[in-house]
Design goal:
Largest sheet: 4 strands, mixed
Number of strands: 4
Distance between the termini: 39 Å
Structural class: alpha/beta
């Protein structure tokens, strides 16, 4: 398996976790990355009325302390509120952990960059409190730490990744995913266009780039497994699943904000959305389902149930 393929999947899967994580979920993700990447890091569990004293993790030998802030994705970012929380959290921390020499405010900016007032506030905090260091830690820095981990460590955090060029797809995995989709019908039934445009034209007009364009092409040759399953199971199931895929795609446009790489990130979001919860507990089962999900997406990409039909894209 090539390093580019591995890097793509690990990076995109971690980014999805960052985009979706808030509150304690974001703190748990931060702790997982730090425990693997930073020698001497210790997570702190709340204890009774004492709580955690504002300490979300620390490196005792360096007197280095971390406080984690993971706002909800839909929350409108306010630099003033973030700065105020920085100061309040530090004051809370200092009362119960008086040995602070280095302080870091971990902020889930979802790769948009931490507001400038946070860095300014931390600089002033370092001067006022005579700290050796006081800096923000952004989502991009967490991603860099994650990507420096060993493959087994990355797998423990995001699960197994699909093979690069599989010789076959497990029919049972496809069957289970299709059954999962059939049992979770869409709330809104959109109107679909029966006309299927040129496969490569659609890739180009949707802004899809490598490696996702190659994944779509490779897995499109294996959609026969899906067709066989649908023919045996229920001829009407194909349309029901197509509707579900279409709804998922429209949800992906809200979940993944527009950017140059948004079409590729939405592909990974779709893969993750197709996987039953029961298959997420084991890395190898997860890898198999991620593989099968790509075949499903390729089938419904070709029929325009996933991604935009070229006729709906404004050429301007």
């Amino acid at each position: 398996m090539s390093s580019d393929h591995k890097d793509f999947w690990y990076r995109k899967l971690f980014r999805l976790k960052i985009h979706e994580a808030s509150g304690t979920e974001f703190q748990r993700l931060f702790n997982d990355v730090m425990q693997y990447s930073t020698q001497g890091f210790q997570a702190v569990a709340p204890w009774g009325n004492w709580g955690d004293g504002g300490n979300d993790g620390w490196c005792p030998r360096e007197n280095r302390y971390f406080q984690v802030f993971g706002p909800q994705a839909a929350t409108t970012r306010s630099p003033v509120q973030a700065v105020n929380k920085t100061i309040i959290d530090f004051n809370k921390l200092r009362k119960k952990w008086p040995t602070i020499e280095r302080y870091h405010f971990v902020y889930n900016d979802r790769f948009r960059g931490a507001p400038a007032p946070i860095a300014s506030s931390l600089l002033n905090l370092a001067i006022d409190e005579n700290l050796k260091e006081a800096t923000p830690i952004s989502s991009a820095e967490l991603e860099a730490k994650f990507m420096s981990l060993t493959e087994s460590q990355k797998m423990m955090i995001v699960g197994g990744i699909p093979a690069e060029t599989p010789e076959f797809i497990d029919p049972s995995a496809i069957g289970e995913l299709l059954t999962y989709l059939a049992d979770n019908p869409p709330q809104i039934v959109p109107l679909l266009d029966d006309t299927s445009p040129d496969f490569h034209k659609k890739i180009q007009l949707n802004g899809i780039t490598v490696p996702v364009s190659e994944y779509l092409r490779i897995y499109s040759y294996q959609v026969d497994e899906i067709d066989v399953f649908l023919k045996v199971r229920d001829p009407g199931l194909a349309q029901q699943i197509a509707l579900q895929i279409n709804e998922l795609y429209h949800r992906s446009k809200t979940a993944v904000v527009d950017s140059a790489d948004a079409p590729n990130e939405r592909y990974v979001w779709l893969v993750e959305s197709l996987i039953p919860t029961s298959k997420r507990n084991h890395p190898h089962s997860l890898a198999a389902c991620r593989l099968a999900a790509q075949v499903i997406i390729s089938k419904y990409f070709e029929t325009c149930d996933a991604y935009e039909h070229p006729d709906s894209i404004d050429p301007a």
